[in-house]
């Protein structure tokens, strides 16, 4: 006879979560690092009591904003290269829908995240309950249906026993390298508290080990043959290299073949920046070294990348009409993009087997040497723009240089939206794999501080540096208080350019008038004069406002020794960006305008789109 244990659905859920394990470098660890929770009437009784019962095995963390706590959970999973994850639970209504942006972020970036929002009553007797969204023509709809398009797996738990198959599917998605992404289990609030006789076997410990699919032999031969024919091959390393733990395999492959490597935002730090074959950033925010090779390449080996428009220069970067693209990716959807030759496999195993199939083949020595020369030229150009000056308003690049010199490549550097991704992608000199943490798949303002918190939870002994602009800070800064409360020290560098400087430059570049981006160009009666340092201090952080690069370096040195989170504020120039490197990006310019600047930008745009390789 099957042994059972009577638990509420919520208790069964949390007990199951506490029994899921993973293995990293031979060490068994809990798969779930904890649950972020903001309680409301839709989850405080059911989930709240359940989490309390397992608080020592499955810790609960309190946050200040639902979206932010989910960002922290996502960053935690990314910092662990998807080997571990966290969950987030909220009430129904605004608590739940505040998670939707984070779900989309995790979906785009292929990152594990378990969302557990409360839902309406399954029995419908009290309908409409507080915060319930009613659809006049569909009684089964709730606000949580907004999660469907941004979840890899969505389920609504309307009976307590449904949690058994739902959790089985949840773990399959969260741990699968090809399907990985957010899972949403909408928990009807009455069902959270309902009891069921669950089989004890449901709660047996399970260790989830990373699946590593090996390449199909026919695809492997096809890819090897194509490489052997190449005269100007180039590797693009994406985030899949890091998630696979394939950095060492990539290094060996590049060194054995002499094929230069460039990196996407997600793949940066796949190789150390100072590796002779690492051309660094590619695409719109790329280096001159990488983009020059990409323009000439007759074969592109795209490893673990989804080839989004910033990587490909909106498909105008790769100018060699006879080029071949090989998509080495664990996800067939990504491997076959833009008619690529598919090599569906785990990045580490795929590179190993491809190296074996190539034998002693090497890229032409002149191509490899040419790449090295371009890298040296780029390093010189980057040093010039990041050097310290006495400018009244330093550039983002000069601030980056100060952070690099003071903090070094051993820190984990985190950023997201605005102008910094473009500058950091090409200028930051990353060290160990995962030391560069960019959220640029969804380019989500507000990810930065919460994301830094998640990285610090994953790397408690490491130094985490967060760089962001004043726009992102104003959108979501509440988790500074959480970092202080939890004793998780961050160093936050806030670049204040008094508005949305990045988009203002894009507006100007497309011929538009300065309008509604910088504070001075927005409708106002009085320009705000925000004291960010005082605000950060009010949240419990150590803070400083500095007025020069020299003062910034001194403040960064102090932050290293500080006992808790430090926020350093510096005013920067909103109009200056690094001209070296980079590539055109497809941002459509209006065909009709009264402004001569827009007409000129439209003419340049029409010329540029002719370089796109449509269907290529």
What would you call the shape?
A: globular
CATH superfamily of the largest domain: Thiamin diphosphate (ThDP)-binding fold, Pyr/PP domains
Got a strand count? 23
Distance between the termini: 61 Å
| Multimer state | single chain
Over all CA atoms, what is the radius of gyration? 25 Å
- Given the helix and strand composition, which structural class is it? alpha/beta
Low-pLDDT segments: none
- Largest beta sheet, briefly? 6 strands, parallel
> What fraction, in percent, of the residue positions are helical?
25-40%
Number of helices: 24
GO biological process, one term: inositol catabolic process
Family: Belongs to the TPP enzyme family.
Domain Thiamine pyrophosphate enzyme N-terminal TPP-binding: 49-131
Pfam family, one: TPP_enzyme_C
How would you describe this structure in keywords?
acetolactate synthase activity, Rossmann fold, hydrolase activity, acting on acid carbon-carbon bonds, in ketonic substances, DHS-like_NAD/FAD-binding_dom, 3 domains, magnesium ion binding, 24 helices, alpha/beta
């Amino acid at each position: 006879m099957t042994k059972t244990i009577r638990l509420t659905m919520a208790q069964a859920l949390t007990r199951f979560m506490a029994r899921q394990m993973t293995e990293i470098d031979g060490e068994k660890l809990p798969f779930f690092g904890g649950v972020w929770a903001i309680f409301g009437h839709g989850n405080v009784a059911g989930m709240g009591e359940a989490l309390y019962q397992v608080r020592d095995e499955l810790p609960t963390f309190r946050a200040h904003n639902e979206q932010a706590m989910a960002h922290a959970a996502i960053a935690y999973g990314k910092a662990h290269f998807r080997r571990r994850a966290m969950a987030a639970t909220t009430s129904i209504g605004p608590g739940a829908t505040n998670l939707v942006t984070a779900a989309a972020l995790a979906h785009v970036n292929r990152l594990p995240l378990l969302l557990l929002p409360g839902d309406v009553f399954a029995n419908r007797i009290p309908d409409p309950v507080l915060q319930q969204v009613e659809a006049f023509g569909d009684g089964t709809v709730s606000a949580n249906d907004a999660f469907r398009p941004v979840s890899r797996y969505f389920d609504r738990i309307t009976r307590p026993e449904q949690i058994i198959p739902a959790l089985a599917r949840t773990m399959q998605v969260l741990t699968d390298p090809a399907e990985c992404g957010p899972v949403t289990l909408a928990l009807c609030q009455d069902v959270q508290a309902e009891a069921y006789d669950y089989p004890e076997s449901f709660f047996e410990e399970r260790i989830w080990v990373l699946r590593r699919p090996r390449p199909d032999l026919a695809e492997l031969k096809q890819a090897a043959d194509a490489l052997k024919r190449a005269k100007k091959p180039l590797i693009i390393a994406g985030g899949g290299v890091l998630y696979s733990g394939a950095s060492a395999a990539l290094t060996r492959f590049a060194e054995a073949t002499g094929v230069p490597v460039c990196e996407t935002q997600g793949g940066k730090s796949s190789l150390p920046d100072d590796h002779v074959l690492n051309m660094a950033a590619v695409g719109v925010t790329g280096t001159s070294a990488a983009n020059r090779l990409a323009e000439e390449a007759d074969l592109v080996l795209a490893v673990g990348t989804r080839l989004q428009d910033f990587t490909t220069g909106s498909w105008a970067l790769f100018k060699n009409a006879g080029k071949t693209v090989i998509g080495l990716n664990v996800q067939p959807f990504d491997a076959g993009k833009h008619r690529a030759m598919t090599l569906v496999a785990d990045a580490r195993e795929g590179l190993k087997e491809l190296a074996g199939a190539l034998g002693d083949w090497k890229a032409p020595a002149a191509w490899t040497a040419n790449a090295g020369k371009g890298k040296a030229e780029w390093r010189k150009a980057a040093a010039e723009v990041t050097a310290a000056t006495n400018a009244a308003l330093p550039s983002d690049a000069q601030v980056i240089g100060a952070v690099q010199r003071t903090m070094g490549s051993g820190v984990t550097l985190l950023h997201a939206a605005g102008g910094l991704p473009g500058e950091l992608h090409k200028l930051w000199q990353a060290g160990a794999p995962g030391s560069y943490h960019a959220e640029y798949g969804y380019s989500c303002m507000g990810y930065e501080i919460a994301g830094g918190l998640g990285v610090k939870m994953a790397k408690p002994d490491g130094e985490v540096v967060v760089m962001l602009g004043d726009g992102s800070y104003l959108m979501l800064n509440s988790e500074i208080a959480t970092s202080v409360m939890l004793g998780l020290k961050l160093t936050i560098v806030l670049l204040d350019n008094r508005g949305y400087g990045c988009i203002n430059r894009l507006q100007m570049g497309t011929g538009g008038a300065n309008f509604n981006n910088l504070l001075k160009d927005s409708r106002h009666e009085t320009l705000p004069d925000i004291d960010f340092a005082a605000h950060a201090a009010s949240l419990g952080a150590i803070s400083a406002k500095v007025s020069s690069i020299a003062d910034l370096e001194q403040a960064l040195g102090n932050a290293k020794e500080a006992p808790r989170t430090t926020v350093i504020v510096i005013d920067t120039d909103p109009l200056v960006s690094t001209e070296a490197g980079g590539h055109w990006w497809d941002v459509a310019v209006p065909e009709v305008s009264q402004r001569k600047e827009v007409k000129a930008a439209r003419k340049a745009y029409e010329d540029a789109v002719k370089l796109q390789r449509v269907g290529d």
